[in-house]
Amino acid sequence: MKKSILLLATCALVASTAALADTANVNVYGTINVSMEQARGLGSIDVDDNEQVRTRIVSNSSNFGIKGIEDLNNDLKGLFQVELDVNVATGALGANLRNTMIGLGTPYGSLHFGKWDSPFRALTFYMEPVFGAGVTEIKPILDTPGMGVGSYGKPTYYSTTEIDGYSFSRRQSNSLWYWSPKFYGMTAKVMFVPAAERADGIDPTMLSASLVYEEGPITAGFAYENHSELRNGSTKWLGANTAGQTDTSDTGLKATVGYKLMENTAINAAWSQLKYEGKVGTTALDYKRNSYFFTATHQIIEPITLRLGYGFASDGKGTQDDGTALDAKDTGAKMYIAGVSYSFSKRTDVYAMASRITNKNNGYTFIQNPVGTVAAGQDPVSFGLGVRHVF
């Protein structure tokens, strides 16, 4: 019922485009990205945990949206966007909206309210080697500590059964953000998530910011993100259980650089550091790990592009809930990505892809379209064919 109402509302917005034409620039846009894949999990420490081979048709961040700009008085512009998650494989709309906002634009930048990709998450979008197709996304290595953690955007604190409070790959709801105008090639972005829900003294907030330089063949950026009390109450600690944690404060740092060579080759590199802190009683917990990713695309001949990626997360270091050093040996992972695409036009591509995450004694997993529940030491593997159309 809710999905039907949402679809009707979308249709109503499209139908109203003509009525708005005199005062606003309204655009319909979308991406349809679907692949057929074989996927499985290999190499678990407990062989019974290995996931069997499955052949599946999946929708890779397919979306449909409407966005508009209206000229107001005194150099002000009204901004809006509504974006739906479209699962082409099942023929259904997603349960939640994607990037959706209302805002005001000025000569000094724009202010928005709603739900959006955090600046930390968005910093590496340009580096995705295979159109951001689910199993080829680089976010698992850069934006999570493993443990089966995926993308998340819940606005409140996290219950004891949830682990996605650890994720720094966030399309965050309940957000306020500012985008600066471009100045000498640089753009600043700042997002703040207030404590919309408080309980038992928990005050969950989030701050995310980035500074990006993009001029000519060079793209470079740096991002910072802090989660204050987002994990309060959690009993999860690197796959083990603790008593409920308090005073959690998690920080992410990320830096990227990319360079385009003669219009047909791009090489990119990224580094991230995730640090988690909290308490169990009076004992302080902490965990920190670094990760790196490298991607490249090369147009072999005009319609054919080779797409490659390699990244790794180092073993972490930290403290466990009895105050002793955490045994974080073998908590790292590696990820390998290979693909090739054929462009029929600027809007339509077909592609082949393969991806594998090799875990040590951890559970790094595909953020989109995961392969079941990843057990410690299990390696998610996938390969397939896809088609992508942008409008």
**End-to-end C-alpha gap:** 28 Å
Structural class: mainly beta
Radius of gyration: 21 Å
CATH architecture: Beta Barrel
Strand order of the largest sheet: 1-3-4-6-7-8-9-10-11-14-15-16-17-19-20-21
Into which percentage range does the β-strand content fall? over 45%
SSE succession:
HHEEEEEEEHHEEEEEEEEEEEEEE
What top-tier CATH class fits best?
Mainly Beta
Residues in helices, as a percent range: under 10%
- Rough outline: globular
Q: Which regions contain 5 or more consecutive residues with pLDDT less than 50?
A: 17-23, 155-161
Q: Give the overall average pLDDT.
A: 86
Quick summary:
With 391 residues, this protein is mostly beta strands.
Task: Give the SSE map.
Blueprint: H1 2-15, H2 17-20, E1 24-42, E2 54-59, E3 63-71, E4 77-87, E5 92-97, E6 100-106, E7 109-117, H3 119-122, H4 139-143, E8 171-179, E9 186-193, E10 205-215, E11 218-228, E12 236-237, E13 240-241, E14 246-261, E15 265-280, E16 283-301, E17 304-313, E18 317-319, E19 333-343, E20 348-359, E21 379-390
Antiparallel strand pairs: 1-2, 1-3, 1-21, 3-4, 4-5, 4-6, 6-7, 7-8, 8-9, 9-10, 10-11, 11-14, 12-13, 14-15, 15-16, 16-17, 16-18, 17-19, 19-20, 20-21
Descriptive overview:
The protein is mainly beta. It has one domain: Porin (Beta Barrel), CATH 2.40.160.10. The chain is 7% helix and 53% strand. It is built from four helices and 21 strands. The chain has a 16-stranded antiparallel barrel with strand order 1-3-4-6-7-8-9-10-11-14-15-16-17-19-20-21. It has a two-stranded antiparallel sheet with strand order 12-13. The longest helix is centred in the N-terminal third of the chain and has 14 residues. The protein is globular, with a radius of gyration of 21 Å.
